[in-house]
Amino acid sequence: MIVDVNLHWYPDFFYSDKAFLKECLRAIPRAYGEYVQVHDVPGTNKKQIKLERPKGYPNLEFPIESTDPEDRLRAMDEGKIDKGIMRWCIWPEWATLEICRRINDAMAKSVKEHPDRLLGLAIVPPWGDEDCLEELDRCINDLGLVGVQVEAHYGTLYLDSEEFRPFFKKINQLKVPVIVHHTALPVDYGHVIDYVNLRRLFGRCIDQMTCVGRIMYSGMLDELPNLKFIHTMMAGGLFAYTTLITPKKSKVVSDRERFDPAASEKVSGYLKNNIYSDITHAPTWSKTQLECAVKELGADHVLFGTSYPLRKEWLLDGVDHIQSLDISEKEKSLVLGENAMKLFNVKG
């Protein structure tokens, strides 16, 4: 069973329902540098969403294919993917509760139309008031969505902020996984915006590594031990830093202790019990990097994703790229589907 945990989705009415589209556009905090427009793709009759942050620096585009259920299934077949877990990208950082309710209903409808192939994630503003917590309950217990999607940060606040603690307490009670999708740029992005590859790829990694590091060192996972976080972009390349960010006490007695070995022990436990990495799009990582990730994080902590339809090549080559790795067949099976099936309680 091959499961894509990063299948990008927009409701089929997104471009055609002008009132809803305007409501979504109004939710964007333009006064803080966000700039989003819907425009025609040059040379085609298609539309796409384009995000710039700040204005003049493109960071994300979402094509109309994101709204097409038939295209989604054809692509999954072509990419040898049995099941896809869908997520709504860009807007969750800004979406109001009213927008989220309509999106959640549409997500559940998409799943209901193809229950053997598709699963969906809930979107809820993370502020933890009574209405938001009720929507979380509705999504999981009534709509049958299998997890919750959050953004790596909201405004200037990362997920360890106290403002979000009631929200995560509720998810801890519901015992469903949390997909942490990267935002277009980290909170502090001034030094990466000038160059497109730094902005559009490395910027996401900075965002996720900052997010996951703050979660692990905040202590929130002691309070909420049921939380399972799945971070995109390989959690910002977390596999390269697991030893570095968990320093042990020096064996040389005369050394001045500059770090916090007790905190390191706790973080090592969180890496085993609470933190997972979504490859996001396998072909953008070399075989050596992915093999290292499996070795450092454990094959049971790495999940396959394609980010379709952002780049079809990532979907078409993704499964074969994982199959080409110099790891065991069992490890490949875990990455390609078994981990997702266990975390999201997916039936075969």
Could you explain how this protein is built, in words?
- This protein has helices at 18-26, 69-78, 97-113, 130-142, 165-174, 196-218, 220-223, 232-237, 261-273, 287-297, 312-323, 329-343, and strands at residues 3-8, 35-40, 47-52, 58-63, 83-87, 118-122, 147-151, 153-154, 157-158, 178-181, 229-231, 275-278, 302-303.
- It has 348 residues and is an alpha/beta fold.
- The chain has one domain (3-11, 65-343): TIM Barrel, CATH 3.20.20.
- An eight-stranded parallel sheet has the order 1-5-6-7-10-11-12-13. Strands 2-3-4 form a three-stranded antiparallel sheet.
- Strand 8 and strand 9 form a beta hairpin.
- Helix 3 runs parallel beside helix 4 and helix 4 (130-142) runs parallel beside helix 5.
- The N and C termini lie close together (7 Å).
- The model has no long low-confidence stretch (mean pLDDT 94).
Question: How are the elements arranged and paired?
Answer:
Layout: E1 3-8, H1 18-26, E2 35-40, E3 47-52, E4 58-63, H2 69-78, E5 83-87, H3 97-113, E6 118-122, H4 130-142, E7 147-151, E8 153-154, E9 157-158, H5 165-174, E10 178-181, H6 196-218, H7 220-223, E11 229-231, H8 232-237, H9 261-273, E12 275-278, H10 287-297, E13 302-303, H11 312-323, H12 329-343
Parallel strand pairs: 1-5, 5-6, 6-7, 7-10, 10-11, 11-12, 12-13
Antiparallel strand pairs: 2-3, 3-4, 8-9
Helix pairs in contact: 3-4, 4-5
What keywords describe this structure?
348 residues, alpha/beta, TIM Barrel, 8-stranded parallel β-sheet, 3-stranded antiparallel β-sheet, 12 helices, globular
